[in-house]
Predict the 3D structure of the following.
Amino acid sequence: MITVQIVDDHKLFVEGLEKIIAGSGVAKIIGKAYNARECWQLLVWEQADVLLLDIRLPDGNGVDLCPQIKQKYPALKILALTSYTEYSVVSRMLENGADGYVLKNAMPEEIIQGIETVAAGEKFLCHEVDLMLKKQAGNAVILTRKERELLRLISEGYISSEIADKMCLGIDSINNYRKNLLLKLDARNTAMLVKIAMEQKLI
């Protein structure tokens, strides 16, 4: 029986995933964490065969967390389980040591296949991600309308509170959009974000 730990802040998704894994007959959940801090606490006590790691977490992101976990626990297999489909995010996650990448909208059978494959020491990409990597390598990043609007306002020098007013969104939503943009464009800070956006003609 393959042992699995889950790191994901969406509790309803985790509950559904638990049922899928429990019903598979090939794996079992031995631990859950809902943020990066809890993830480290979980791993101190016990490491599973496979860690299912989301990218978006309340106190960090899986892209940065992945190499840190791999450095401390090199035998642990990490399967990214997320909604991010952008080439830049997928490629960085894999470069940072992830053993596989599965989208949350994948069929349950594909998620179980991913767990079995990485547990056996092989790389795994769900069908949709595999196709994307083959077709979109080198293509420009695709942004949503709100992300483009946020980029434009950032480039014009507005601060988060002003942007929140202009976009009729809360500060938390603006901060989440900003984090997503930094991740998508592989930018370390706002200045680099704007520079990359201008170079790629995103604004």
